[in-house]
């Protein structure tokens, strides 16, 4: 591992707004953070957590949790949150597959899937964050009428997600191939992630808002 990455990785252990499966403190951090009176919003596969950070600043009365397995990316988000005194955002490092082991049932108002890996190889389809296995996990933790937002630049993932959500008896509330118009109506879609900033030139961004 590069030296800079190693330093960030070591630092991550010291950050008060991070819980890690490797330190066995995810549940402890969550229990101390969650206020059942407040709206809880998750960003899954958050990377550096741009959605969590921007929304946490805009909605101080809500709580945000960014989840990813990559410690170095979480370090960026968690450090920025501390620098900006964003006390309503927490970052957790664990595999999303275990999300229902940690989050209370029907506790989450919204989930953001911000540019998840499209997992294009046939053998990896079950790893897509909109595969039936993951949709069932989200159903467990979402409140009734809770919302899921998918933003992607991958048409195969977009088409697959529309099909899978419908097969799983979910409800598509909005879907857009190219979100310029949707961005005018929903300014939240203007938030750009690291991945999006790198890939956006000439790329179509797809968006689905759905319920399960
Ligand atoms: C393409 S990146 C997007 C990161 C960020 N949302 C962005 O748009 O810049 C996908 C992220 O999902 C994370 N990820 C993928 N599968 C995961 C899983 N099963 N559990 C936890 N994190 C996962 C990866 O570590 C990676 O940071």
What can you see in these coordinates?
With 212 residues, the chain is an alpha/beta fold. It has one domain (3-211): Vaccinia Virus protein VP39 (Rossmann fold). Helix content is 37%, strand content 24%. It has helices at residues 3-12, 26-33, 50-58, 71-83, 99-102, 132-141, 155-167, 180-185, 194-199, and strands at 18-20, 40-44, 63-68, 89-93, 108-114, 142-152, 171-177, 206-211. It is globular and about 40 Å long. The termini are far apart. The model has no long low-confidence stretch (mean pLDDT 93). Bound molecules: S-adenosylmethionine. S-adenosylmethionine is lined by residues 45-47, 68-70, 73, 95-97, 114-117, 193-196.
Brief summary of the model shown:
By secondary structure, this protein is α/β, with parallel strands linked by helices. The protein has nine helices and eight strands. The protein is globular, with a radius of gyration of 16 Å.
């Amino acid at each position: 591992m590069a030296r800079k990455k190693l330093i960030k990785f070591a630092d991550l252990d010291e950050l008060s707004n991070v819980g890690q499966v490797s330190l066995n403190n995810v549940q402890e951090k969550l229990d101390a953070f969650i206020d059942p009176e407040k709206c809880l919003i998750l960003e899954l596969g958050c990377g550096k957590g741009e959605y969590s950070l921007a929304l946490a600043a805009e909605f101080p009365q809500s709580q945000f949790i960014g989840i990813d397995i990559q410690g170095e990316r979480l370090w960026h988000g968690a450090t920025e949150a501390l620098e900006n005194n964003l006390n309503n955002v927490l970052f957790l490092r664990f595999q999303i597959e275990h999300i229902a082991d940690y989050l209370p049932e029907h506790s989450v108002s919204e989930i953001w899937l911000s540019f998840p890996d499209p997992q294009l190889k046939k053998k990896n389809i079950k790893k897509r964050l909109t595969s039936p296995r993951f949709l069932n996990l989200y159903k467990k933790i979402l409140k009734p009428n809770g919302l899921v937002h998918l933003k992607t630049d991958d048409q195969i993932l977009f088409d697959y997600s529309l099909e899978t959500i419908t097969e799983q008896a979910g409800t598509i509330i909005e879907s857009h191939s190219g979100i310029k118009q949707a961005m005018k109506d929903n300014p939240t879609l203007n938030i750009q992630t690291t991945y999006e900033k790198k890939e956006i030139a000439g790329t179509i961004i797809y968006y689905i808002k759905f319920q399960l």
